[in-house]
Amino acid sequence: SARIGVLALQGGVSEHIEALTRVGAEVVAVRTPEHLHGLDGIVLPGGESSVLDKLLRMFELRDPLTALLRGGLPAYGTCAGLILLADTVLDLAPGQQGLGGLPVTVRRNAFGSQAHSFETELAFAGIDHPVRATFIRAPLITEVGEGTDVLARLADGGVVATRYRNLLGTSFHPELTGDDSVHEYFVEMVRAAQNG
Ligand code: GLN
User: Fold this and answer.
1) Which among 119, 99, 116, 111 has a CA at the least distance from the CA of 169?
2) Of 22, 129, 140, 171, whose CA is between 20 and 30 Å from 123?
3) 115-158 pLDDT, tens per residue?
4) 47 C-alpha to ligand 1 centroid (Å)
5) Cα dihedral 102, 105, 111, 117 in deg (nearest 10)
6) Which residues fall in the annotated binding site?
7) Contact 5, 43 (CB under 8 A)
8) What is the DSSP letter of 35?
9) Are the beta carbons of 98 and 139 closer than 8 angstroms?
10) Of all atoms in ligand 1, which is nearest to the CA of residue 83?
11) Number of neighbouring beta carbons within 10 Å of residue 174
C-alpha cells in the first residue's frame, strides 16, 4: 500500500491525515528526519509558509526533505505547502525560503483582505466532478513553467492547481470540504510512481 507522510509541524495536519486514511493510504505524521524513511509520498499542508520554513530548519527536516523531493518523491502541497514547493514566490516574508521543485510562480496572500477566505467548486483535470475548494489567505499561481500542467482555474482564469511530474500543488484546501477526490488523485500519483 502507499505510505504517505503528512508534514506535522504546523497547520491543517489532522484533516489531511483523515482524508488520506479514508482513501486507503497508510499515513505517517512527519515530525523528525526518521519519519521520512520509507515514505512513498508526502503532503505539505496549509498553515503559514514562513513559519513552516522556520520549523523545517529547527526540526532538521529541510535538507533531507529537499533531497527526497529532488530525488522524485511525490509531494502534494496545499496552500502554504504549495508555496513551499514553488520555484518562485512573490511577497515572501523576510528571510523566508522555499523548498522549490515545482516550476511555478506563486503570489502569497494574493486575494487581498476582501476575499480572505471563500469556498467554490472547480473543474479539475483528471477528476470527473466539480471539486469543492476552500481558499484561506491563499496564494495564486501567476506563472506556470515549461512542462507544468494546469489542473484547475477559478472562473476568472486564475490558476489554482498545477502538476509537474510527481509534484502537485493547489492554492486551496480540499481537506476541509469532505470531498476526498484530490487526495485520491494524489494517492494514484504515488501508486503510479511506485509502479513506475
Ligand atoms: N497565507 C499563508 C502563507 O503565506 C498560506 C495560508 C494557508 O495555507 N491557508 O503561508
Assistant:
1) 99
2) 22
3) 679 999 999 999 999 999 999 999 999 999 999 999 999 999 99
4) 5
5) 10
6) 47-49, 108, 136-137
7) yes
8) G
9) no
10) 10
11) 27
- ipTM for the predicted complex: 0.95
Whether domain 3-195 has CATH 3.40.50.880: yes
Residue for cell digits 477528476? 127
> pLDDT tens-digit profile of 101-110?
999 999 999 9
Q: How large is the greatest C-alpha to C-alpha distance in the chain, in angstroms? A: 45
**Is the full-model pTM beyond 0.95?**
yes
- Write down the catalytic residue from 16, 173, 183, 184: 173
- Tell which atom from ligand 1 comes closest to the C-alpha of 49: 10
Annotated catalytic residue 79: yes
Calpha distance 173→12 (Å, rounded): 9
Domain range summary for the chain, segments of one domain joined by +? 3-195
Q: Beta strand pairing status for 75-78 and 41-44?
A: parallel
